[in-house]
Each structure stands twice: as C-alpha cells, then as structure tokens.
Amino acid sequence: MNKVSASRVDSFSKSACACLRNVSCDFKKTTVLKETFIGLLTNYTDNDRLTNELWIEIEKNYSSKKRHYHTLQHLDNLLAQLTDVKGEIQNWNTILFTLYYHDIVYNSLKSDNEEKSAELAEKRMKQISVSIDKIELCKNQILATKSHIKSTDSDTNYFTDADLSVLGQNWETYLLYYKNVRKEYSIYPDFVYNPGRKKVLNHFLSMDRIFKTDFFHNKFEIQAKQNLQMEIELL
Q1: Which of 73, 81, 88, 230 is nearest to 163 (CA)?
Q2: Digit-coded pLDDT (tens) for 102-114
Q3: What is the CA radius of gyration of the chain?
C-alpha cells in the first residue's frame, strides 16, 4: 500500500472511530433521559405501555429533522445542570416534567410554542393522574421560558437559568449553539434573521443579571455576556 492510500485509510479509520464514539455518546445520553423519564412516571402509573408511548412521543418530537438545537441533547444538558442543584429544588418531579415537555412543541415559524407545549404537558400529566397543583406549576414553568424573567418561585428560576446555561458555555460550545439556532430559522434570509437575533441578544445584555439564581449567575454570567457580545459582532 502506498503512502497516499495508507494516509486515506488512516484518515477514514479516525473518522469512523469518531463517528462511533459520537453514536455511543448519544445513545448513552438518550438512555439516561429515557431511564429518568420512566423512573419519574413510576411515581404516577404502573401502565408500562402508556409510559413507553409517552417516552416515544418525547423522543420523536425532540428528534425531528427540523430541530438542530431544541433536541434531546438540549434535554441532556438541562438534566445535567439541574442535577447539580437538585438539593435546592423544592419539587424535583415537577421540574422533570417541565424539562421533558418545555419544548415538546417547537415550530420556528410560530410564536406560541410555549403555550402549546404547556397544553400538551397538562394533557399528558392528567393521563397519569398528576395532581392539579403540580400540573399548574409545570405549565407556569414552561411558560416562564418565553421571557426568562425572574419568578417568585425559586424552582422556576433554577429551571429558566438552566435553560439559558448554554449562553455561558465555552466559546466552541456557544458557537455550535448559535449555528444550530440559525439552522432552525434557515427559512429566513440574513437580512430578516440578523436584526431579530441582535434584538434578542441585546435584550439579554441589557439585563442587570441574565441568571436569576446565585449558583448559575456565579457559574455562567461573565462568559455569557462575552459570548453574546461576540455573536453580535459576527452578525
């Protein structure tokens, strides 16, 4: 085998290994999400068929080819961030319902995704006899992701902060995030998308605090503002 052929084989092998690692990683993340969801529902129903149907619905919606950021990866990141503050959460089960359903309905052309997601969450939670007070709290938490303003409910603040945690990740992770968001709005040309995106970014930058809780503020605030400013300069 000549050197060129050997180099191509080596390159292919490395690419194949990287692909397999990514598939394995994604599988593990999906498994954790599924196991956590099934564990949650065992508190409310022993109907395995219904539990499986509800998980399949979640997996299917978040795996839509039209989604690039609002995916199972987003849920996995949320679960990791919230697990770090689990001891501070008053109603962990409700937070988990909010996590799984907050973006279950997502259409970049619509402005009522949160409302539709809250409606579906209510319907599914009623199917497994979750109490009305928990359903209402879940719906309010989902609706809170529309504005991300400070709530009088501490659990809601932890959830919306976790939802924004991607803003404070390292630049490489943030770069992938904003590119994926752009893909979800690919129907719009730059001259339409960029002004709207800048408005959103400047909204966050104008806040005294992007993150409402001390935990997430101390962890992500400085990096988030740097990332937001850098994206504005690139638009």
Answers
A1: 81
A2: 999 999 999 999 9
A3: 20
